[in-house]
Amino acid sequence: MHHMNGAELTIALLERQGITTISGIPGGTNLPLYTALSHSQHIRHVLARHEQGAGFIAQGMARSTGQAAVCFATSGPGATNLLTAIADAKLDSTPIVCITGQVHSDMIGTDAFQEVDIYGMSIPITKHNFQVRSAAELLEVIPQAFELALSGRPGPVLVDIPKDVQTEILEFADWPVPGQAAAIAPCNARALENAARMIAAAQRPILYLGGGVVSADAGATACTLAENNDIPMVTTMMALGAIRCDHPLNLGMFGMHGSKKTNLLMQEADLLIVAGARFDDRATGKIGEFCPQANVIHIDIDASEIHKLRSAHIGVHGDVGEALTQLNTLLPQHSRPEWIGQAKQARRDTSTVVALTGKDQIRPFELIRDIAEHVGEQAFIATDVGQHQMWTAQHYPFCRNRHWLTSGGLGTMGFGLPTAIGAALANPENPVVCFSGDGSFLMNIQELATLAQEQLNVKIILLDNQALGLVRQQQSLFYDNRLFASEFAQAIDFVAIAQGFGIKAMRLTTTNADTLAETLQQPGPCLIHVPIDRREMVFPMVPPGAANTTMLEGECHACA
Amino acid sequence: MPAPDTRRETVLELRVNNHPGVMSHVVGLFARRRYNVEAILCLPVDDGAQSDIWLLVNESDRLSQIISQVEKLADVRTVVRHAEDSCLFADLRQQMYGGGELKESA
User: Where is the Thiamine pyrophosphate enzyme central domain positioned along the sequence (chain A) (predicted)?
Assistant: First the structure.
């Protein structure tokens, strides 16, 4: 018989899940868990400085590895601070298991000190959640939490454990089997045969890849389908890196800040083969005018995504990788010289228009390309949310699955730094670059302390325009240039701030740009502060709510 | 003049795990997806390990979508969409309200 309390059991079950790193912050109601964790030989704890940071550190581990990662928070404010990171994980289908302490069971519902109904609050933003009622339940709940987080379409799971459950002594005979992703039912063979026929008959098909292709690691399979059948590929922002950016059939990112030629070519498609994507509005623009001539084959692991926003002529429910593999066996080679010629022309023309600013300041897109050259293909790239994120999505030459870490669905400012920390913890051999903007960076700047403590190889490229850049851009373009509350009047000395946290820091300008390579090569963390012109905008751009054919290109707005 | 309300009602029958919070998962999903639930009936089955929930909802184009979302809930075992209007809620209404007035419970 095994004899231990609920907290010790929880840690033992996490060890059996293969967890080696947990991010979190202790507090009154999870102290038994922390005491048990302090005795663990297998799990190290990374002390975040804010629970949202802990949640994103877990996301960085999960997104970069595909494995479920764990974070801890105490009850009340600790738990509510996790919510944004959980919602972010839900919208981008990221498997994390969040374990919160809760007040003593007898006090639940009494408005006790640091009590909130985190179970109730997290229902809409988790894939599933639990409130554990006894130590014995943990034997079932912890493996189930991992199974749910990883199975099918991945997502966040929250486990709320009252303090008395953590201290309850339990005797039990057998360990449960660790939770893992459940087997996926095979795709409907008939639907795939119909899909193959539809693809063979199409004259202008496009393979539309979404984040599900990253989860399924199905990029190579998609490329085979494209190569054998002369089908151009496009990716959503979430699918960047799933296929090499230099693949001759990759037309790159489409959508709000995608390439204009790609958006226009898509309008001519007579068939969209949509793999692991959900027709998000940032990708489709005004959906009623999106690819109006195209039939749709929609492959998704989540059945409820098929027909949700756009009716599919053929819906294939199942693993994207398996579906594409089967399509490859069903489809003999097929050539479409005219269409592929058009696509390759569009690819040649996809250079993005960027507004020019003075020569005395660094241009973001040039800097992003330079950094890619210096850090190489092994680097993980995290971003915050804003103009720098869109410039990185447009210009960074992504080549590897799971190396692009960005907040897509929720668009969470503050995502970048803690997620970069998580990626570095899970991949200590690889460099990690975090592109951020000053607005985003300020939202989780306290994690510089975590980074300094862990001495991880994270380079922060802080593009500072003293503004909420995308907000300012929208005000410039669509709100009569009324720039209100989108500029920061108070300049911040980010170099001094970083140094105060114990992080090396430098300011990069045109006069010392040649030191960039050397700085990036030095091991350990470093903040590279890059002042940029706040008039820089992200172009091209589809105005919010407009069709993808309505792209602003920038020249006329360059001097806004 | 507004068009007459011609919406038909449908009954969804859900078999769910029975523990605190399950009802919030189910009805919260409807609320979040802007879908009104007109009536709810819930009874424990299987010695209380599971429950059956009957939901009276309006037919709409979005009903299939909300059903597939409900099917994703971890505690929902099965969902049955009754093709015809179930008499369940009509009978209940009749018993409780008779000809339209709430009966006094003597």
Answer: 192-327
